[in-house]
Design goal:
Helix content: 10-25%
Distance between the termini: 35 Å
Number of strands: 11
Largest sheet: 9 strands, antiparallel
Structural class: mainly beta
Shape: globular
Strand content: over 45%
Length: about 200
């Protein structure tokens, strides 16, 4: 029933656009151009799907760091499933850059999801004068009954575009039990856009 509730939440948070397609969780939909600092293509080599548990792992990243107490509880925009950071997992800095006077850092980390399954996250932090100003969840990947992932791009002018994708390929009865597989997956998508302001905050537009 908890997993059925998660599926319902996935449907509710999306402005639904259905696409009849067979999905792959390594699909990249955003091509990189000279105006883009970092996007899904750059993060893709650091993702590995463990077939045994259908969970994503981070790979090829160096210099793990521990979260501080403040970092563990810092609010994150676009974290609609409210997955919490855990001191059980370190984080890795995968990229850093500046937008005017704001320093930006992209970090990758794992967290716990439904039934203690593992979720991979990518977060964009902004700083001014050494103080964190904001945090935005760029990517969040898990494969419960529903497959969920994001494609994103960060532009040099501080614009961030995120495409959220949820794929449901299973049939359920009224009790929330799985009864089979759909002939064609139902895919819902939502695109959100942010622009960093002069104070280093991500403003939705």
């Amino acid at each position: 029933m908890k997993k059925a509730a998660l599926l319902l939440l996935l449907i509710v948070v999306f402005s639904c656009k259905k696409e009849g397609e067979k999905s792959t969780n390594t699909k990249t939909e955003i091509a990189k151009t000279d105006s883009i600092v970092y996007n899904t293509n750059d993060f893709q080599p650091h993702l590995k799907l463990e077939d045994e548990f259908s969970e994503f792992e981070l790979t090829g990243l160096k210099n793990p760091e521990k979260f501080t107490a403040a970092e563990l509880t810092y609010p994150i925009k676009e974290n609609e499933f409210d997955f919490k950071k855990s001191a059980d997992f370190d984080y890795f800095t995968v990229n850093d850059f500046n937008v005017d006077k704001t320093k930006c850092k992209i970090i990758a980390f794992s967290s716990y999801g439904e039934n203690d399954s593992k979720i991979v996250n990518l977060q964009l932090n902004s700083y001014q004068s050494g103080e964190q100003k904001d945090a935005l969840l760029l990517d969040c990947r898990f494969t419960f009954e529903t497959e969920y992932y994001r494609n994103f791009e960060i532009k040099k002018n501080g614009t961030v575009i995120i495409k959220k994708i949820a794929v449901n390929g299973l049939l359920y009865n009224n009790d929330g039990d799985i009864t089979g597989e759909k002939a064609v997956n139902d895919t819902t998508t939502e695109v959100v856009k942010y622009k960093m302001n002069a104070n280093g905050q991500f403003v939705k537009f």
